């Protein structure tokens, strides 16, 4: 483990010291500096604590299936929301008005269903099979000795998770760059290193506990900021009057039309296919506790979703012209309001809240990348007949984490898409390919290996093809046609190839 301590020393010497001076100069307040720095370094401390509990691959990837219901609920919610919520959704509400709330409705309903029904089934079945990943589960369910689904799924994860992580890193760098007036490249380095240090130390356990803490920080920011904003503009009635004078369409929940509403609600279709979310259900100690996790998680989802939308509405009332925002970017409305309404201490905490949202998703997705390459490819395909020592698996997982983080940082530096749309593309691809397969395997006995294989392929290719060629002309979110095309092909192929029934 010597390389970890060398890496931490390098991180302190080259990054924290220089970054800390810039941060201190920007915030101009020792307490504010301490608050913000705590939000950045607390995950590393949690990583050191989790290091003692991380003894094997099961601990590193699913927390040894020993997590409590509260941690599972908050980490599932936190890992699913990310920069898409704090930056992307608030920016969308700034541009489109209250109609953005329909995006919240879609995923809240879907994830409530997942906690109560899908999660319990998945947790029970994965323990029976000894599965540590979603692809583990599919392969064991079909007794796929040729690794067809595992290899196909690994390629799909490589495509979409990479785009997803890059979006999170980009969101983190944008926040730091605008808040502290530092370069985008340096901001990316800080974001990436902060994630990688604690993940290398504690794996899933560190990720889950950090995500639970971040969910609380996110709620503080997404609850306090809109309340203060409402008070500043004169209350809810005054906000409505301002928006009515500026643009009445901002107050119309169906102003965007039926097609766009279906698009937003359809976002929820992607939830069952997110490996970084469903692994939370696999990690809970007692699957019977997932019902209470559903209550906790749904409450947190609603609080954060409404908060993000209100921030966008308050921001529109205050900044009627987008050129008044940092970099003329509506996705920085959270940052602009924080700077205007709060002193340096609370401002430091709220900026930490943005980081909380970003890190809570990026770390979970990097863990999926590590599990895919080490567990699904290296161990189960390349060395399927060899017995690997747990220490070797842990070392390989940590190495892959670092390499995947570096690649994602490079892609984030090159990315030009808005966070909201880049995340929706990755969310849609994973939902159409894995979500359809998971639902059908758990709830339809007639599902076959070849049905899942072709369903994954159609879900992936339709997502990409629709995004490139048909999205602009039709206005339809690629997840919706891809999801139903994948279901249709999965059912048809399964009916043709039903060589055996799934065992329940």
Report on this model:
- This protein is mainly alpha-helical and 504 residues long.
- Helices cover 80% and strands 0% of the residues.
- The radius of gyration is 22 Å and the shape is globular.
- Mean pLDDT is 82; it is low at 1-21.
List the helices and strands and how they pair.
Blueprint lengths: L1 H26 L2 H22 L5 H6 L6 H28 L4 H29 L4 H9 L5 H33 L3 H50 L2 H11 L11 H8 L9 H9 L6 H29 L14 H9 L2 H39 L7 H25 L4 H25 L5 H26 L4 H18 L8
Helix pairs in contact: 1-2, 1-8, 2-8, 2-14, 4-7, 4-8, 4-11, 4-12, 4-14, 4-16, 5-10, 5-11, 5-12, 6-7, 7-8, 7-14, 7-15, 7-16, 7-17, 8-12, 8-13, 8-14, 8-15, 9-12, 12-13, 13-14, 14-15, 16-17, 16-18, 17-18
List keywords for this structure.
single chain; 504 residues; mainly alpha; 18 helices; 80% helix; globular; disordered N terminus
């Amino acid at each position: 483990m010597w390389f970890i301590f060398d890496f931490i020393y390098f991180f302190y010497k080259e990054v924290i010291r220089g970054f800390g001076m810039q941060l201190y100069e920007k915030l101009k307040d020792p307490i504010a500096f301490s608050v913000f720095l705590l939000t950045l370094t607390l995950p590393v401390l949690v990583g050191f604590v989790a290091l003692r509990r991380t003894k094997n691959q099961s601990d590193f990837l699913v927390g040894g299936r020993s997590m409590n219901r509260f941690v599972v609920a908050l980490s599932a919610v936190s890992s699913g929301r990310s920069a898409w919520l704090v930056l992307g959704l608030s920016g969308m509400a700034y541009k489109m008005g209250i109609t953005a709330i329909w995006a919240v409705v879609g995923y809240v309903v879907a994830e409530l269903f997942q906690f109560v029904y899908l999660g319990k089934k998945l947790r029970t079945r994965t323990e029976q099979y000894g599965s540590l990943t979603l692809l583990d589960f599919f392969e064991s369910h079909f007794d796929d000795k040729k690794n067809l689904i595992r290899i196909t799924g690994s390629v799909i994860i490589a495509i979409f998770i990479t785009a997803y992580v890059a979006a999170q890193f980009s969101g983190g760098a944008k926040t730091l760059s605008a808040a502290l007036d530092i370069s985008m490249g340096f901001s990316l380095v800080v974001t990436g290193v902060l994630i990688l240090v604690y993940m290398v130390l504690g794996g899933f356990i560190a990720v889950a506990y950090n995500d639970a803490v971040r969910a609380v920080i996110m709620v503080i920011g997404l609850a306090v900021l809109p309340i203060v904003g409402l008070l500043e503009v004169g209350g809810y009635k005054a906000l409505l009057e301002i928006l009515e004078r500026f643009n009445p369409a901002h107050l119309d929940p169906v102003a965007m039309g039926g097609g766009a509403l279906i698009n937003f609600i359809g976002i929820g279709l992607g939830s069952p296919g997110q490996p970084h979310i469903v692994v939370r259900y696999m990690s809970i100690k007692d699957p019977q506790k997932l019902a209470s996790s559903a209550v906790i998680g749904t409450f947190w989802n609603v609080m954060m979703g409404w908060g993000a939308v209100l921030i966008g509405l308050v921001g529109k009332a205050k900044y009627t012209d987008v050129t008044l925002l940092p970099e003329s970017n509506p996705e920085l409305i959270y940052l602009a309001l924080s700077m205007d309404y709060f002193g340096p201490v609370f401002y430091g905490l709220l900026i930490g809240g943005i980081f909380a949202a970003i890190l809570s998703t990026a770390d979970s997705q990097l863990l999926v990348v590590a599990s895919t390459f080490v567990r699904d490819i290296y161990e189960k395909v390349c060395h399927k007949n060899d017995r690997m020592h747990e220490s070797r698996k842990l070392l390989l997982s940590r190495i892959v984490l670092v390499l995947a983080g570096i690649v994602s940082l490079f892609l984030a530096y090159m990315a030009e898409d808005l966070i909201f749309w880049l995340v929706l593309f990755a969310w849609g691809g994973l939902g159409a390919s894995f979500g359809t397969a998971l639902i059908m395997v758990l709830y339809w006995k007639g599902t076959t290996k070849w049905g899942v294989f072709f369903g994954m392929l159609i879900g992936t290719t339709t997502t990409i093809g629709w995004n490139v060629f048909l999205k602009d002309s039709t206005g339809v979110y690629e997840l919706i046609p891809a999801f139903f095309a994948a279901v249709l092909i999965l059912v048809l192929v399964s009916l043709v190839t039903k060589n055996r029934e799934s065992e329940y």
